Hints:
Elements: E1 5-7, E2 10-16, E3 19-23, H1 38-47
Antiparallel strand pairs: 1-2, 2-3
Amino acid sequence: MSEAKIVNGYQIKQVKPGEWRVAGANGEDVGAGAFPSEEMAISVASVLELEHPSAGRRVNKDKR
């Protein structure tokens, strides 16, 4: 099995021969399904949006 690749903030991991998964940065499966190729998993990860923006992108609306 190969090393996980990072695409758009998601990990692309081969879990067994012929099965690839998209996982979050913490390694947890995002439920996008099993894919028969790495290319298909990369295509899906490239259009997913992160649930939580990075700390640098958050805006504190209470600050004045």
